[in-house]
């Protein structure tokens, strides 16, 4: 079964999938299935597409005057780090860790990350059950979902 899921996902053109379609795909997967397919080139493609779209999903009107560097540490077969900078009504994303101090650092596994960004996971529950570990500005963490168009799963 894991090979079927992996083969089906590997054949997808993630650039052509809408956030709502992606949310539907993730909704149909268990955390175990996500962990099994989130390896190698497929994992890189999925994470790259998600972070590549964050700027498009950003809601500047909701962010107002917010200025923050958010560091995302996605654990799994290896740790991948992305940073989002929200400032001046824009959201920019870079891969890798900068020397700057993050206002908020979020650490989570692949399954928790995909559930979170696809609207399939409750961020408060995920934080309380330690599926997401947050360091820094917890008020920012609590309101982070307001700054992005996250599909309803």
UniProtKB/TrEMBL annotation:
A family per Pfam: SCP2
Gene3D superfamilies reported in the protein's UniProt record: SCP2 sterol-binding domain
Domain SCP2, first and last residues per copy: 60-148
Superkingdom, taxonomy of origin: Bacteria
Protein name, per record: SCP2 sterol-binding domain-containing protein
